[in-house]
Specification:
The chain is built from ten helices and 16 strands. The protein has 298 residues and is α+β, with helices and mostly antiparallel strands. A hairpin with a 2-residue loop joins strand 8 and strand 9. Helix 3 packs parallel to helix 4. The strands form three sheets. The protein has a six-stranded antiparallel beta sheet, covered by helices on one side. It has two domains: 129 residues, Rossmann fold (3-Layer(aba) Sandwich), CATH 3.40.50.10330; 151 residues, Tumour Suppressor Smad4 (Sandwich), CATH 2.60.200.40. It binds adenosine-5'-triphosphate (ATP). Adenosine-5'-triphosphate binds next to helix 1 and helix 4.
């Protein structure tokens, strides 16, 4: 039956984690001979615990938390480089990877799904020296979104990101980027560049309907200069999942890219919802990198 580690972020999702811990431990002890539970106290703990579990020969590592905890756990497993299965119970506000794989957003349902789960193959991405599972965002909007506080997230949920993002958009702050996508180079002024591994970005599941979790590709959307009319046209395209056909963006499907800021600003990036590495960025896909406990195909 094997052994596993369960990493729990007690602060995730308005401190819901502890309430589900016993239920999860019981479920895992039906699936594994031995379950080691580790609680995070600060940033970096989930990554460290995942790496240690992989290096100690654990067969699977699970985590309970938001996208930040999922990202850290994946980073720990990727750095260890061992073949370890991964599972998670979504407890955050956004939960993009859960949405992409079809893991129930209700923690109790996600826990009960585990007994009939299948191992689903998942691509992951690498941006400079960090790994990611959902998305990378760069530009004036992610810069603004970084300022969303934990209180705002609890109060408004994913809407908090849209409010801050909308304010940055209204200010029309642009940066000039030099982008190379699979060997093709271009420059573009943009308020926002999004790189998506899966369909769901910032809880918006119809953003990139064509993106599958194991298709070996990423998608880049470079937004052009916006005026009100453009954004009115863009909104229905976004809702219908047709952003790739919009005149308001440059859309690329790719495996490797580099992005530099030409106007010399020290822009920050956002990776899976948390602050990511500084520019210039090198982004690549690691196809079929890990197996994740997800819903069995019907
Ligand atoms: N015991 C703890 N107390 C406070 N913060 C913690 C603790 N353990 C980890 N953290 C922090 O929590 C962050 C991750 O939170 P996570 O993204 O999992 O949940 P969330 O913020 O509720 O979800 P979301 O990102 O979807 O809003 C980590 O970056 C880490 O810094």
């Amino acid at each position: 039956m094997g052994i596993c580690t369960l990493i729990v972020n007690p602060s995730s999702g308005g401190e819901k984690a502890t309430g589900y811990l016993d239920l999860m431990r019981t479920r895992l002890s039906e699936m594994f001979e031995e379950v080691t539970v580790k609680k995070t106290e600060k940033q970096g703990d989930a990554e460290k615990f995942a790496q240690e579990a992989a290096n100690h020969g654990h067969d699977a590592v699970f985590c309970m938390g938001g996208d930040g905890t999922v990202n850290e756990t994946i980073n720990g497993l990727a750095v260890a480089g061992k073949s370890v299965s991964f599972g998670f119970i979504p407890l955050g506000t956004v939960n993009d990877l859960a949405r992409a794989i079809g893991i129930p957003l209700d923690p109790e349902q996600a826990i009960s799904m585990l007994s009939e789960a299948a191992l689903v193959v998942l691509d992951i991405g690498k941006v400079n020296d960090r790994y990611f599972v959902s998305n990378v965002a760069a530009g004036a909007i992610p810069e603004a979104v970084e300022g969303v506080s934990a209180e705002e997230k609890t109060k408004y949920g994913p809407l908090a990101y849209f409010i801050e993002g909308g304010k940055a958009l209204a200010k029309q702050t642009m940066h000039r980027f030099r982008i190379t996508v699979d060997g093709e180079t271009f420059t573009q002024e943009s308020p926002l560049i999004l790189i998506a591994l899966t369909n769901s970005i910032a809880s918006f599941e119809s953003f990139m309907p064509q993106a599958k979790v194991d298709d070996g590709k990423m998608r880049m959307v470079v937004f052009k200069e916006f005026n009100l009319l453009d954004s009115l046209k863009l909104l229905p395209q976004l809702i219908r999942g047709e952003i790739k056909n919009s005149d308001a963006v440059i859309y690329k499907s790719f495996k490797h890219a580099t992005i530099a800021v030409e106007d010399g600003e020290n822009l920050i990036t956002n990776v899976d919802g948390d602050e990511g590495p500084a520019f210039p960025l090198e982004i690549e896909i690691l196809p079929s990198f890990i197996k994740v406990y997800g819903p069995a195909a019907t």
